[in-house]
Structure prediction request, 713 residues.
Amino acid sequence: MIKRSFLLSAIIVPAVMAFAQQYGGMWIPTEVNEKEMKAMGLKIPAKQLFDTQKASIKDAVVQFDGGCTAEIISPKGLLLTNHHCGYDNIQSHSTVENDLLTNGFWAKNMGEELPNPGVTVDFIADIKEVTSSILAGTQGLESADLTKKINENIENYKKSQKIESYQTISVKPMYYGNKYYAYIIETYKDVRLVGAPPSSIGKYGSDTDNWVFPRHTGDFSMFRIYADKNNKPAEYSKDNIPYKPKHFLPVSMKEKKEGDFTFVYGFPGRTQEYLPAIAVEKIRTEIDPAMISVRDIALKTLDEKMRSDAATKIKYASKYASIANSWKKWKGEVEGLTKSDAAGKKQKYEQMLISKNPAVKTTLDELNRLYNEQAPYALNRAYYGETVRNAETLTLANNYYNFIAAVEAGKMDAKTLEGFKNRLSGVYKDFDAELDAKVTAKLLAHYANKAPKQFLPAGFEQYKNEAQNLQTIENLSKNSVITGRGSMNGATTYSDINKVFADQNALVQNLKNDPLMKLFSALREGYMTSTDGKVSSLQQQIDANQKKFMAQQMETDKDRKFFPDANSTLRVTYGKVAGSNPRDALYYGYQTHLSGVIEKYIPGDYEFDLPKKLIELYNKKDYGIYKNSNGDVPVNFTATNHTTGGNSGSPALDAYGNLIGLNFDRQWEGTMSDINYDPKFSRNIMVDTKYILFIIDKFANSRWLIDEMKVVK
Ligand code: ARG
Ligand code: GLU
Prediction:
């Protein structure tokens, strides 16, 4: 097969490019397809991406605080990631008088960098395939026995490995458990905030532009890793010194061209590229639409008040953004799966597999049966989960329900209690009980009308009417501790949450008599009895068959080069700088510019306002060396890299391993790439390194940071 693609590449280059990109790819860095990467434009040996003997690019790529990706861009441990990845840390240093989110922050020297207790970065020191150790003695075992044996093997494997005191081992399944890989991880714990542009640059366009191209967001922030005097991980100490990396990424100033080779290195979270057609069809026609429909209602209800009331707008901005983020992604997913006929293509693919290997039919028949059996339960789970997540009154009640359970099980220690109080305070912090009563009333009605009838808890027929629900919720909330309106021990959750929780047993009694809690308990217990166990036990059977199906795909489709679905482990994906044609007669270029930032400017708007300084730089055309040959500063660009959530903050590199961009989003017309990557629609969106340097130098006057870097002209 390698031969065939090689041959093709010599003759018809565009066809091979399409072929190479047909299924996308998030490759384990020790197993990249070097031939294909070279054919597409990589100019360095693949070994330079990942080498345990010598410094290599992987030494500059870290997982940032367990979620995003970040990369080292100076010999002094300077770290680049997204603004939305550093957001919580930037926020935690903010006060009303000194709001770093609004104003931005730039340390003038290392002494001014701000510590962030709890924030970690993980390096991957080594990757090993350990399938035979982990699956040893598992032949013939099933379900719980199999899981138990595998966990034992994992523990034994970890114990058998000699590692340094600052290292840990993580063993991860790949290909649905057909293979296992071990990761040696080094975690650094002293990570300081160095710089962040104001949100009007770092989050420019906010929700309106989220998942959208053409895009104009300077979504970056900077941190620095500190180490002990031996350059090893250490808890925060003022005596720590800037980390000296084995490798750091040179920052490229070269102008991008359509078709340029690029690769993205990072920690993608979750994809499902190998599902059977039926699963894709259930997501497209049932699960996604159900989840979208719940969030449609929540977003619309919040938006009405946010538009008319400035205080609400501020209060709910972050919650709204979080509800809208997945909502918009799912909408793109449904549209993309439909337009690309993902399920139809999968069906054909399944027929092809069956024609070569009749055993595949047995597995698929079983998967079809299981997915059909699970469908109503899965649908109820989707409605229930989204209802409780988005109706905050129910979210609160759910937390108090868990609190009661923990107290009654005798599991309430000081740490657990702190956890409850923190989680609840987090909701109360920006909670508008009156506004949420409306959301809850509508979502409850939606649930009563839309969730599969057979699962509706007894008596829930009466919640089909929104207006009536609103009255009910209002009545039940009036004196309830849950909504913060009722008091306990002379305090409300707003005035003094500690006092409310001071006498746990009394609080439990109070909650048990709370009519709002009664309503929620009926809902939750109904769901648990009818759905929860069933959906999980069917899922276990699906997983076992999916493992079989995965193995069969790999042994039957010998011509295809498989990569494991994303699972938050280190991966490499590659592609070309490219615009797109997402709809008939609609073409997106691959690059946006500062002039486009200015075109979107709406003074005073919470999404499209701009800092005066940026407008001045634009008016004076004070672009320094950061402009392209067209005289404009490049801002964002797109490419065909196969990325997903978790790739935020990932470095986009050129053929030589220089940093050319900072990944932060995808365009929504292609977000189905989590299930069905399609080179026609799927594009990742990056901040151009020139814009990052322009903001650091011209906007923030922080040349000292650029002086640390190795800038490639
Ligand atoms: N859509 C991007 C990512 O997943 C960015 C999210 C943050 N930005 C925002 N406007 N909410 O998940
Ligand atoms: N914004 C996403 C993240 O936070 C990356 C976008 C995507 O899902 O591709 O990881």
About this structure: Residues 68, 643-648, 664-666 surround glutamic acid (ligand 2) (CB under 6 Å). The radius of gyration is 26 Å.
